[in-house]
Each structure stands twice: as C-alpha cells, then as structure tokens.
Amino acid sequence: MTQPSLTSRVAVVTGASAGIGEAIAREFAAAGAKVVLNARREERLEAICAELKKSHGCPCAVCAAGDAADEMTIASMLNLAKREFGREADLVVINAGRGLKGSVVDSDVSQWEELLRTNIMAAARLMRAAAKRMLEDMARDTAGSTGGGTAWIDRPRDIVVIGSIVGRHVSPFSSMYGATKFAVHGMAEGLRRELGPKGIRVTLVEPGFVTSEFQGVAGYDAVWYEGVVAKIGPVLTPGDVAKTVAFAASLPAHVHVSDWIVRPTRQDYP
Known about the structure:
With about 270 residues, this protein is α/β, with parallel strands linked by helices. The chain has a single domain (about 10-260), classed as NAD(P)-binding Rossmann-like Domain (Rossmann fold), CATH 3.40.50. It has 8 helices and 7 strands, in the order βαβαβαβαβαβαααβ. A 7-stranded parallel beta sheet has the order 3-2-1-4-5-6-7, with helices on both faces. Helix 2 (about 40-55) links the parallel strand 2 and strand 3. The model has no long low-confidence stretch (mean pLDDT about 95).
C-alpha cells in the first residue's frame, strides 16, 4: 500500500505508548503529520517521541502524559497541539482503553468501574471536547473564507474511534468488555450523524484479533490465545490497524468510509 500523505494534519492519539495507539502515532508521523501522543506511561511516551523526532524531523511529535479519562488531561493534549503546532488538532484518534476477560457472570467485578471509566467515559469526554473545538475552528475558517460554507472541503477534520469486533458481535467470553465497545460504537454513530452534515468525519474502526500487550493486561489465558493464533493466524498486527486509520484520514474531505471491520483473513468468529 502506498504511504498516504498527512503532511498538513495535526493529530492527537490516546493510548499511544503501546499497541495500536503507538502504531498509529508512528504511521501518522511517517505520513508527515504533527502528532501529540497521550498515555499514562510518561517515560515510554518520551522515548517514542524522541525516536519520532529523530526519524522524521523536529518538531513532529510531542507528549501529553496523563489519564485519558481526566478532563484536565484532555484539555492539556488539545491545548498542546495548538501551542506546539500552531492550530487546533484536526485528526483525533480515541484509542485509549483496556480489556477484561469474562462475562457478566464470571468477570472480575472489582475491575468493572475502571473498565467503564477507561473505555466509555474517556471516549465520551474526548469525543465531546474534540467535536467542540473542531466546530469552533471550522466556524473561524468559514468566516475567513471566500468560499463560505464550503470551507470544510479545504481541510479534512476527523475523529477516529478504535472499537472492537466484539462491540458489534457479542462474545460470551468477553461480554463485559464487549458491552463497553457497544456503548462506544453507539456514541460514535450518534456523533457521526451530528457532525457529518457539518463537514466533520467520525470514523469507527473495529479490529478483530490483534497481537499486542492487550491480551495480557485483559487477563486472557496465554495458552488459549496461542491456540486461537494457531487456528486463525496470522492475526493482525497493530501496524495493520494503523494503516487502515491513516488511509481513512488521507481521503479527500468529501469522502468518508465511516465503519471499518478489520479482521485476520481466517478469523471466523466473532
């Protein structure tokens, strides 16, 4: 696949210290975007930013460490984009999240609140903050443009939500995690219907099996996961998902592929 161009874009990526989020940040930087990376692991973030600056030139990446569910952190990362790169972020990727093995019956109830906070509240708060800023920024562009209401065509604006295939097809083995993704998918579609007519794209990306540290953090049994990989592999890498996101963001402003399901070719369920 040809490397898409994102040379004019200012991006924010949450959950960028590992896995899909890190791969997206790297893909964006390679495509020419300026990127704000967010995650809780500040030391890891700083190392990635330093590597991106060395590889792609300075400034191309800055870090905004903190809890993606915290409103002050959200404001900080969006403010940082404008301060460091001269304008509001026009490409916001809502990726921060966590997994949890098990169903309503047998999952660890002590982790439910953190699961809901990280996967639902963090996503909702960033959707809201990014949408408001993009709308205000678009209003300024429109006011200063001779094209009037068509100013949005000149500069794409994207909110990309990383969901999960189990948020569309119920899996009894991870139904608590899947329920949070069903909620996020509902919010993303509602936001798409609200913002699309105003020229802002809201894109939902739903990966299937992706090899990353996600499985270990979620508590999935390593032997079980190895069996899944042996059956349906090769499974996706974070880079596979990142390429999908970069391609979607690189399309002309009037073109929107709003829902992506990305599976390993041999994955039959879910």
